[in-house]
Amino acid sequence: MPLYEYRCLSCGHTFDAIQKFSDPPLKTCPECGKKVEKCVSSPAIQFKGSGFYITDYTNKGKKPATGKKAPAKKKGAGKADKKAPSKGG
User: Fold this and answer.
1) Do 27 and 11 contact (CB within 8 A), yes or no?
2) pLDDT tens digits, one per residue of 5-55
């Protein structure tokens, strides 16, 4: 169900109401009982699933989208460093 935002024309109180599409708009302020108007606000949309994240559009095996060359990997960069010998031994 959608969340609607209302504002009182008299006292300026703003509040939200969860209503069905078929419900009539609210007419009175819960604070002062005067007339309210429905505000226009941006919808709260949450995209879920694949296809909505930047990581879903990676260029696998291709050059980066910026036109720059990918940095070359150094030989042995992924290997762990060797342990230094301990002095206690």
Assistant:
1) no
2) 999 999 999 999 999 989 999 999 999 999 999 998 777 677 776 666 666
pTM over 0.70: no
Angstrom distance (rounded) from CA 24 to CA 22: 6
Q: Are the C-beta atoms of residues 2 and 25 closer than 8 Å to each other? A: no
Query: Which residues are CB-neighbours of 70 under 8 A, at least 6 positions away?
Result: 63, 64
The three-class DSSP label of residue 36 is: strand
Both structure tokens of 1: 């169900």
Q: Which residues of 38-69 are buried (b: 16+ CB within 10 A; e: fewer)?
A: eeeeeeeeeeeeeeeeeeeeeeeeeeeeeeee
